[in-house]
Amino acid sequence: MNDPKKLAGRFPGDFLFGVATASFQIEGATKEDGRKPSIWDAFSNMPGRVYGRQNGDVACDHYHRWEQDLDLIKDMGVSAYRFSIAWPRIIPDGTGRINEQGLDFYDKLIDGLKDRGIKAYATLYHWDLPLTLMGEGGWTARSTAYAFQRYAKVVMSRLGDRLDAVATFNEPWCSVWLSHLYGIHAPGEKNMDAALHALHYTNLAHGLGIDAIRQVAPNVPAGLVLNAHSVVAGSDSKADKAAAERAFQFNNGVFFGPVFKGEYPDNFMKALGGRMPPIEDGDLEVISQKLDWWGLNYYTPMRVAHNPAKGAEFPAVVDAPPVSTVKTDIGWEVYAPALGSLVKDLYDRYDLPDCYITENGACYNMGLENGEVDDQPRLDYYAEHLGVVADLISDGVPMKGYFAWSLMDNFEWAEGYKMRFGLVYVDYDTQERILKKSGKWYQTLAGEFPKGNHASS
Ligand code: GCO
Q1: Could you tell me the residue range of the domain that residue 330 belongs to?
Q2: Residue 61 and residue 433: Cα distance in Å, rounded?
C-alpha cells in the first residue's frame, strides 16, 4: 500500500517520523576547528579499504551547510532528526583537552533544530573513534570505555538541556564484529580475540555512558541503537535451526543479553567465553541499567545454514540463499516480513522498553534525469516496511517512531560515495541537494500524518 494518506492514518498521533544521518558520513571539514583524525580518517586514507579510496574530508559538507540541511528537514515536514556527535571534534585525542569549538558546532545545530520545531535525537558514538585512542588498543582496551564515559559526560553537560533523546552507541555489531572480526570497517582487524575484547569493552562503555547521562542530564531519555539481525534458518532441518539459534546469540544475544538481562548467552560463553577479557565484578550491573528506549536499525534478513566444516568456529554457520529475488543496489535482499518477526521475537526473548526504528531504508543508485530522481523502488521499500511497523503497532508492540536512513546520500563507509541511501540526492560536484521521488513521497506522508490523527495519542 503506497498511498501515503492511508498509510499515515495507520499511525497513532504521538508517533514520530524522522530522518537520520551520522557525523562522519555527512560532515566533512575533518581538519577544521580543532578536530583531529578518527579511525575512519586513517582507514579510508589507506589504499584498498574504501571503494575508490574515498574519504570523509568533504562528504556532504554538512559542517558548512548545516542551516540549509536543517531547512531541508523542515521542508520535508518530519518532526525529528537523528544525528551523531563526532567524538574527535569534542575531545580530539579521546582523552585530555576538551575542544570548545567542537561543542559549539552541535550547540548551534541543536538550537537550529529547536528554532525549526524539530526534535533532536543524538547518538554519541557512530564509529568515529579518536585515532589517538588506537595507541592504547582502541576498543580492545578497557581504558577506552572510561574515555567514552568522560566524553558522554562532557557532551551531556553542554547539550543535554536541549536533547529530546540520546543513544550511547549506534550498531555495536558493526563496531565490534564488522570492524574487529571481519575486517571490513575501521580499524580493519580480523581477529576473534580482538573482537571479543571490543565486544565487552563496548558493552561496558555503553553502561558507563548511561551512568554519565543519568548523572548530568537525568531527564533526557537514554537508549541504545542495535542492528539486531533477523536470523532465518535456511531450511527446517534440525541442524539449520540449531545454526540459526547460534547465529542469533552471536549476532544479537551478545548485545541484548548483557544489556537487557545482565548476562552473556550460555552457548556463546561455552564456545568463546575463555577468550573474553576479564569480566570484572560489577561490569554486568553497569551494562544492564534500565534504558528508556531502544532503537532498531533494520535493512535485510540474515539467512544461515549449519557449517559442517570440522573445527568451524562458533557460531559455525554459512550463508543460506535469499528467499526474495528483490535486491537493492548494494545486494541486500528486500524482505519486509523479517522486520515484523524480528521485533516480535526480541520482545518475546527480552524485557524491552519502547522501540524506535532508528534506521530503515534502501540503497538505489539511480541518478538525476531532467532534474529529477525517479527512485520508485526506494519508495516501495519504505511503504512496505512502514506497513510492517503499522502492523506491529496494531499488535500492541510499543513502536514510537521511525527514522528513514537517510536524509541524504552520503559516505557509505567501505562502499564510499558509490552507494546512495538518501531521500535527497547529493550532487557531490556542486553539493546541490535534490529531493528524490521517495523524498517527496515521505514528505507527503509526514504532511498527511498529523491531520485529524491525534485521537489515539
Ligand atoms: C548503520 C549505519 C549507517 C549506514 C546504513 C546503510 O548504522 O549501519 O548507521 O551508517 O549508512 O546502515 O548501510
Answers
A1: 4-446
A2: 11
108: cell is 548551534
438 part of a folded domain: yes
> What's the start-to-end Cα distance of the chain, in Å?
24
Active site residue 359: yes
260 lines ligand 1 (CB under 6 A): no
Report yes or no on 453 lying in a domain.
no
Which of the following is catalytic: 27, 333, 359, 412?
Answer: 359
% residues pLDDT > 90 (the chain) = 98
**pLDDT higher than threshold 80 for residue 450:** no
Element (H, E) at 38: none
Determine which helix (DSSP H) or strand (DSSP E) holds 115, and give its type and residue range: helix 100-115
- CATH classification at residue 255: 3.20.20.80
Region class of 30: left (phi > 0), else alpha (psi between -120 and 50), else beta: alpha
Q: How confident is the model at residue 453 (pLDDT cuts 50, 70, 90)?
A: low
**Measured distance CA(58)–CA(64) in Å, rounded:** 10
Say if strands 165-170 and 222-226 run parallel, antiparallel, or are unpaired.
parallel
Pocket test for ligand 1, best of 169, 171, 177, 178 (most atoms within 8 A of CB): 171
Query: Quick one: cell of 410?
Result: 552520503
All cell numbers assigned to 176:
565490534
Query: Would 457 be classed as within a structural domain?
Result: no
Q: Could you tell me the three cell numbers for 444?
A: 507527503
Whether 171 is catalytic is: yes
Count of the separate structural domains present in the chain: 1
CA pair distance 224, 145, nearest whole angstrom: 15
Cα-based angle 287, 293, 294 (whole degrees, multiple of 5): 70
Q: Is 128 in the pocket of ligand 1 (CB under 6 A)?
A: no
Q: Is the CB of 22 under 6 A from ligand 1?
A: yes
Going from the Cα of 444 to the center of ligand 1, the distance in angstroms, rounded, reads: 25
Please name every residue paired with 169 in a beta bridge, in sequence order, or none if there are none: 125
Q: What's the gap in Å between 131 CA and the centre of ligand 1? A: 21
The string of DSSP letters for 118-165 reads: -EEEEEEESS--BGGGGGGTGGGSHHHHHHHHHHHHHHHHHHGGG-SE
Does some domain include residue 124? yes
Tens-place pLDDT, residues 183-212: 999 999 999 999 999 999 999 999 999 999
With a 6 Å cutoff on the Cβ, whether 359 touches ligand 1 is yes
